[in-house]
Amino acid sequence: MTVAIWAWVLAVYDRPGVPEATLALQDNHGQNTSFLLWAVYARATDRGLLDQAAAIARAWDQTALIPIRQARRALKTPLPPINDGAREAFRQDVKALELAAERLLMETLAGLAGQGHAVDAFEALSAAADAWGEAPPAQALADLARVLG
């Protein structure tokens, strides 16, 4: 299941509107997009499982994802006298590291449980956002559920 989840994430992230919807939930509402996407993939609505997964995602956010993301974003701006081409190449390396950290989290979460019962994406997203503790507007979750299909 762990390999399958990453292939699924890459496929859904290529759908129109998914990157924008996930980034809006992340940047505007404090959600962890890997956690949300895992919940949809796993069809997770069990509160105990969601709480366990949220704790893992929060720890990984603090340890790896947030610091890497902050470094990647800070590297967008030229930093003279650092060579701009070298800075951009390094930023791309950091971006790849951020992606690897997200993949590791997704694969870890995928190992928690098998596919859940049949629920729609909005139900899984709502349950996950509730477990995360910082519920975004329902419309933001509905927007992501719609583009996920």
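^ that was protein a. below is b, sequence first then the tokens
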Amino acid sequence: MLIVALCRPADDCVVVEVGGELDAFNCGLLAETLGQATARGTGAVIVDMERVDYFSAAGLHCLEHAAEEAAAARRPLHLVCAPGGAVQRVLLAAGMGARWPVHADVERAKRACAAAAAALG
């Protein structure tokens, strides 16, 4: 079962929390929520995937599409995933480990987003 929630919306970032199993059968829910996140606020979109137990190639494609939409809206996409967890293993296996900024927890992701925004002026 996949659980997706749009949380903590603010002007500087939007956090999408994801938990459970992400595969071809349910990645549409994540895609829809990521689209809503991109439409809200003006800052980064943080995808918290710490509680994802299973992450398929379909989930990876969903993130790629969301990153393209976020980039078109001039909004960076940041990932939060457990070190050595399902998401990180798939990212590394697919050679996508450096595709997006990856953080160990949401607070670190928020700080990185704030620092990047401050550097831009």
